Amino acid sequence: MTTVTLTENNNQKHIEIHVDDIIQIQLDESPTTGYKWEITELNTNDMQVISQDFKLHSNSGVGGGGKKMIQLKVLRKASGPYKARKPAALERGCL
To answer: Which of 9, 36, 48, 63 has the most CB atoms around it within 10 Å of its CB?
Structure first.
């Protein structure tokens, strides 16, 4: 079992993973402004969401930005796509 860490720098890139690997995704997020990451395409027969968490940047105050942390476990051999997106605040109906 290997842990593979992915960030926005891995966008549109192919990665090689194996059964039982853990994928740790770290993405900048500011949920109080409506910029919140969500998984939009994931075959749960292939991968299991282990956890989703938000960690506030150490220099941020209340309502500040931080990192969205998503952990997935690879359950079986397959090929994507797997997608996450960060909708703009107006797309979510917020002003």
So the answer is: 36
Strand ranges, E, within 30-65: 38-41, 47-56
CA distance 5 to 39: 16
Number of helices (H) and strands (E) in the chain: give both, helices first: 0, 6
**Can you give the three-state secondary structure of the chain, one letter per residue?**
CCEEEECHHHCCCCCCCCCCCEEEEEEEEEHHHCECCEEEECCCCCEEEEEEEEEECCCCCCCCCEEEEEEEEECCCCCCCCEEECCCHHHHCCC
pTM above 0.85, yes or no: no
Say what the pLDDT of residue 90 is: 44
Kindly list the structural domains of the chain, giving each domain's residue range(s) and its CATH number in brackets, ordered by start. 3-82 (2.60.40.2020)
Q: Which pLDDT tens digit goes with each residue over 15-59?
A: 888 999 999 999 888 877 777 888 888 888 999 999 999 998 888
